[in-house]
Amino acid sequence: MRSLVEPRRGRVLALRAEYEAGFRGIVNAGVAEGCFKVASARLVSYAILDLGMGVAAWYREDGELTEDAIVWQYSDFALRLAGASPEG
């Protein structure tokens, strides 16, 4: 991010803020509906986003886990981070 120059840097930062707000909105909606229990929607949304972005650093098609296995496991991680209720 630091190596980007204007106007691209501003555009990327705006897009990042938009999708981070979208994730926070999802978490806040889950809290409002009683499906999620979190101390900080911002922190949970950052953690979930980091999960997704981190996969790019290590995932390999010929790796130990299939793409589907990773998706299911990471979905479980994300729901646990959000304090998902078993009924929700």
From TrEMBL:
Domain HTH-type transcriptional repressor KstR2 C-terminal, chain residue ranges per copy: 1-81
Source domain of life: Bacteria
InterPro entries assigned: KstR2_TetR_C (IPR041490), Tet_transcr_reg_TetR-rel_C_sf (IPR036271)
A UniProt-annotated Pfam family: TetR_C_24
Name under which the protein is recorded: HTH-type transcriptional repressor KstR2 C-terminal domain-containing protein
Record organism: Streptomyces vulcanius
